[in-house]
Specification:
Helix 5 packs parallel to helix 10. The chain is built from 16 helices and 32 strands. 26% of the residues lie in helices and 23% in strands. The relative contact order is 0.11. The strands form eight sheets. Strands 5, 6, 7, 8, 9, 10, 11, 14 and 19 form a nine-stranded antiparallel beta sheet that branches. A five-stranded mixed beta sheet has the order 21-22-23-25-24. Strands 27-28-30-32-31 form a five-stranded mixed beta sheet, sandwiched between helices. It is globular, with a radius of gyration of 26 Å. Strand 7 and strand 8 form a beta hairpin. Among the domains are: 31 residues, no CATH class; 190 residues, Electron Transport, Fmn-binding Protein, Chain A (Pnp Oxidase, Chain A, Roll), CATH 2.30.110.10; 129 residues, UbiD C-terminal domain-like; 99 residues, UbiD C-terminal domain-like, CATH 3.40.1670.10. With 643 residues, it is an alpha+beta fold.
Length: 643
């Protein structure tokens, strides 16, 4: 039976738990409560996907009737307003002001005794963000599931080609075996039995380092998985904090009060006392790995299966009125876009403090799915400064995964993409201002030539200072034009935008080209072209009139070293082609398996269409998957295990 929530004013800010957050959202009309039966097997995904792709992120959704004792809440942080509520502010400006205030304590020297006393009081107040140990049991241990059984939880099957059911919003708590320093990360968990899951942590993550250290010591690794509690826990687990910084300190800063911990019942590890559900267990580093995946991931593609550690469950405890939180990821925009927005806002001041004070702002467009595109605004005062910022950011924590990094002047509004494009077009010369590098890339970057290693590109779109000007830089032609019939390989060629003096074009193939490199090089020099410009080349299934999809695919399918072609032609004109087509193993200098695009099955889409009115969730919203089904491949995701 689902719990009955009775809203009490200011309850969330007072108690800051999942129940009060839900009550608050419902009181403000920002929650849909669905009492009709909805299955956690694909149906919840299809409903939430329709809402989360709305312009405002849609409402949070509480599924009360799912065949288990636990209601499921989804899209909880899927809007600016809800994300700000999680962070305890009413606006992004308020968050920036709070961060600036605390950072000023370390950067502004006191002028007198009164200043020193004020700083001392503030620092004492800051000490309240540190986690605290609580004696006895916590609310998270009110009910002990005996025996523990993961099948009693409403674990989701998110997408049709997922490898199974996945816990999608876990806060996975581990600790360094040498120092005892705690880490909280978010790593998906595929259920394999009633008491075992996979643990999908990437090799770059702190928990993966802990795992390697336990392996060297020959010890089992205690793990606790937190579901629910204060939503600040969930966000903090996604935040790109430095190694050896406890994520629950960030949660304490957000809450303005410390997180209280109690000892787990069966493992030597501590857990937040007010979590909704706690899954305790261990990982044996000497045990054989398990073939985990595939999984419809935040890139909009299925992440391919691979070998990951087994997590063995030793206990499951929960609150009496526990709610199971879940999320889905896929083709953007979805809920994770708003977590990314929060990270932009929360970490701008620390990046200015640690990387460079000349950084004014940064922005991660949703089409870049977190790592594929980063826009940076700087106050430029000396030559080469943009390149310095590129290198500094590529060396800063998870910013190392940034595939395309564009540096712009301070007058450019980063969320005005027309301004961004005009600045790139005006100042970023293909020969002098595109800076490629190789290094670690996100493990989910399917376009990289090898697993977790590939190329990235920095674009200096700042106005050149006198020392940076090359006397032989040719004058740009005003437009790129095509006259005459298209090459036989192309079905469309059209301008995407034609602002300022430099156009961007999209071209779609009729069918797969056997030697794409040869075709592109020949095409760049075609007599039918005049002027300078950039062309994004996509597959025949892509609608070149859909700019959001075009941007998402261009960034996701791009390996800069392999897929950016530039050519200077007679008269000083330049043509650039970005090959955003899918790559085939054995061709295109690509040796990996290309993943499938994520879409829902027609059967589930039709089922939800037919049930929509009875669900009583407002005006009908068509399935977003219908727009992308033409991008789906055959069974390329079905890869056999291999060591």
């Amino acid at each position: 039976m689902a719990p009955v929530f009775v809203y009490k004013k200011e309850e969330f800010m007072k108690n800051r738990d999942l129940q009060s957050f839900i009550q608050n959202l419902e009181a403000e009309g920002d929650l849909l409560r669905i009492t009709a039966p909805v299955s956690s097997d694909l149906e919840m995904t299809e409903i939430v996907d329709r809402f989360s792709k709305q312009a405002d992120g849609g409402k949070a959704i509480l599924f009360e009737n799912n065949g288990t004792d636990f209601p499921v809440v989804m899209n909880l942080m899927g809007s600016d307003k809800r994300m700000q509520k999680v962070l305890g502010v009413d606006s992004w400006d308020a968050l920036q002001a709070r961060l600036q205030h605390y950072l000023s304590l370390f950067t502004t020297p006191p002028n007198n005794l009164l200043d020193k006393l004020k700083i001392a009081l503030q620092l004492r107040k800051m000490s309240g963000i540190f986690p605290k140990r609580k004696r006895g049991r916590g609310l998270c241990q009110q009910v002990i599931m005996d025996p523990p059984n993961l099948s009693k939880l409403p674990i989701l099957t998110c997408w049709p080609h997922d490898g199974g059911k996945f816990v999608t919003l876990p806060v996975v708590v581990t600790k360094d075996p040498h120092t005892g320093i705690r880490n909280a990360g978010m790593y998906r968990m595929q259920q394999f039995s009633e008491t075992m899951t996979g643990m999908h942590w990437h090799r770059h993550k702190v928990a993966a380092r802990h795992y390697r250290e336990y392996k060297e010591l020959g010890k089992r690794m205690p793990v606790a998985v937190i579901l629910g509690g204060d939503p600040a826990y969930t966000y903090s687990a996604t935040a790109p904090l430095p190694d050896n910084i406890d994520e629950f300190m960030l949660a304490g800063f957000v809450r303005q009060k410390p997180v209280e911990f109690v000892k787990a019942l069966t493992q030597d590890i501590e857990v937040p006392a007010d979590a909704d559900i706690v899954i305790e267990g261990y990982i044996d580093p000497d045990e054989e790995l398990i073939w985990e995946g595939p999984f419809g991931d935040h890139t909009g593609f299925y992440s391919l299966p691979d070998w990951y550690p087994k997590f063995h469950v030793t206990a499951i405890t929960h609150k009496r009125n526990a709610v199971y939180p879940a999320t889905i990821v896929g083709i953007p925009p979805m809920e994770d876009a708003y977590l990314g927005k929060a990270t932009e806002q929360l970490f701008l001041k620390p990046i200015q403090f640690a990387v460079g004070p000349e950084i004014i702002d940064l922005h991660l467009p949703v089409q870049g799915v977190a790592h594929n595109l980063v826009l940076v605004k700087i106050r430029k005062t000396y030559p080469g400064q943009a390149v310095k910022i590129m290198n500094a950011l590529w060396g800063a924590g998870q910013m190392m995964f940034s595939k395309v990094l564009v540096v712009l002047d301070e007058e450019v509004e980063l969320t005005n993409y027309e301004q961004v494009f005009n600045a790139v077009a005006k100042y970023a010369h293909p020969e002098f201002d595109l800076h490629t590098s190789k290094g670690p890339v996100d493990i989910l970057d399917h376009a990289a030539p090898t697993f977790s290693y590939g190329s990235k590109i920095g674009v200096d779109a700042t106005a050149p200072l006198p020392e940076e000007k090359e006397t032989d830089i040719p004058v740009w032609s005003a437009t790129l034009k095509w006259e005459g019939e298209l090459p036989g390989e192309l079905q469309t060629l059209r301008p995407v935008t034609h602002t300022g003096e430099y156009p961007l074009w999209a071209a779609s193939l009729k069918e797969r080209v056997a030697d794409k490199k040869q075709f592109i090089n020949r095409w760049l020099q075609a007599d039918q072209f005049s002027g300078s410009g950039t062309i994004i080349l996509v597959d025949e299934q892509v609608n070149p009139d859909d700019n959001n999809t075009l941007g998402w695919l261009a960034l996701g399918n791009l390996d800069p070293h392999r897929d950016v072609y530039s050519k200077e032609v007679e008269g000083g004109s330049w043509r650039i082609v970005i090959d955003a087509t899918m790559k085939v193993r054995g061709d295109d200098n690509y040796k990996r398996q290309w993943p499938n695009v994520i879409t829902m099955s027609d059967e589930v889409i039709k089922r939800i269409d037919n049930q929509w009115e009875s669900l009583q969730i407002g005006p009908f919203i068509p399935s977003p998957s219908k727009r992308f089904q033409g991008l789906s491949l055959s069974d390329s995701y079905n890869i056999k295990p291999s060591q």
